Amino acid sequence: MHMPLEDTLGLNLLAANTHQAEHNNEHFQSWNLICFNLMSSPGAGKTALLERSLPSLARELNLAVLEGDMTTQLDAERLEAVGIPVVPITTGRACHLDAAMVSGGLKLLQQRLDPAALDLLLVENVGNLVCPAEFDVGEHHKVALLSVTEGDDKPLKYPLMFRNADVVLITKVDLLPHLPVDLDAIRSNILSINPDATVIEVSALNGEGLEAWHRWVRQALAQRKSPTPALATG
Amino acid sequence: MHEVDMTKCLLISLNEWRDRREDTSAMVQTVHLDVGRFTCVEPDQLVTTYNAAVQGSWLAGSRLTIKEIPFIGRCLSCYGTYDPVPENAYRSPCCDHPLDEIVSGRELRIRSINYRSDSGAALQSVPIQRQR
């Protein structure tokens, strides 16, 4: 007899991704490295920040990058050019990296180097302020970038991204003299949504603020043996 | 676009549910989701994607229903709850406090599954008649 039945699951919709993200994070723990997930809109300056920042950080840390891009490997080539090991992940039509894609990137990374020798793995996500906010990849910290050219209301339009970020980098501040944008309003809007966020103003062009960003990186590394990784929760 | 990936995650969970039941006779009628308003999910798109994805599969003919959960914050100055809105930068209207605690709105939950089966109840299954 076909009985009408109901099962109560109470299961997270993204349980499959979360499970893979936890698996990735277990790898990071076993390799004793820390992983950042860099997210922003297209053109906010993720790759430019890494180009400027990583050669400096590489003097004291072992680094690698997983580079998400929809169709090209152009960003990966830019970072290889500054001497950082990069594994490109071409997402095709997907507008974000998910935990399974990062898992595939980790397998490729292991073919190139020993991840246990790394201190820091940076995942550069696909430029998009919507989808990446919901898909954990196993990172310890979410890093969001927002350029001053995007306007001070961007955090209000894409609140989830800025709510979930541990640190928000306001980029391209060298352009401020040329723009009718209110830096205090950007900062205030970020902190209204996420009062726990660290906000750092940077310019990859003239280097302003990079030392503050590097200090934040070092602090995160100093805490990497913390027993509870800061996997974002829903 | 991410509704496609969310649907993939949902189908993985539904396949796992069927595998756990070890019951190939289960015919899913309705999948009930709770989706908070402070998520990146557009319910209509998720339903459209689901309907396309299940065609030709064991879930063909099943329906996805979505209950939207309101976005509610709690003001940590006066502990009152409020509706965070972009016009007020998501701050509390009572004390102008930043958005600290989210009471609801982040839900992305597979709440329950209605189905028919000829192998009797299993797992946490509850005959629907008994619930009423």
Helices, strands, pairings?
The complex is a heterodimer of chains A (234) and B (132).
Chain A: E1 3-12, H1 15-31, E2 34-39, H2 46-57, E3 63-69, H3 74-81, E4 86-90, H4 99-112, E5 120-124, E6 141-147, H5 154-157, H6 159-164, E7 167-171, H7 183-193, E8 198-201, H8 210-222
Parallel strand pairs in A: 2-5, 2-6, 3-4, 3-5, 6-7, 7-8
Chain B: H1 2-21, E1 27-36, H2 43-53, E2 63-69, E3 72-74, E4 81-82, E5 101-104, E6 108-117, E7 126-127, H3 128-131
Could you characterize the architecture of this molecule?
The complex is a heterodimer of chains A (234) and B (132). By secondary structure, chain A is an alpha/beta fold. Chain A has a single domain, classed as Rossmann fold. Chain A has eight helices and eight strands. The longest helix of chain A has 17 residues. Chain A is globular. Chain B is of the alpha+beta class and 132 residues long. Helices cover 27% and strands 29% of the residues of chain B. In chain B, strands 2-1-6 form a three-stranded mixed beta sheet, with helices on one face. In chain B, α1 crosses α2. At the A-B interface, β1, α1, α6 and α7 of A face α1, β1, β6, β7 and α3 of B.
Summarize the structure.
The complex is a heterodimer of chains A (234) and B (132). Chain A is α/β, with parallel strands linked by helices.
CATH topology of chain B: hypothetical protein PF0899 fold
**In the CATH hierarchy, what is the architecture of chain B at level 2?**
2-Layer Sandwich
Distance between the termini of chain A: 40 Å
Q: What gyration radius of chain A follows from the Cα positions, in whole Å?
A: 18 Å
Number of domains of chain A: 1
* Helix-strand sequence of chain A: EHEHEHEHEEHHEHEH
CATH class category of chain B: Alpha Beta
Number of strands of chain B: 7
Query: SSE order of chain B, as H and E?
Result: HEHEEEEEEH
Question: Biggest sheet of chain A, in brief?
Answer: 7 strands, parallel
Can you tell me the CATH superfamily of chain A?
P-loop containing nucleotide triphosphate hydrolases
Shape of chain A: globular
Radius of gyration of chain B: 19 Å
In total, the number of domains of chain B comes to 1
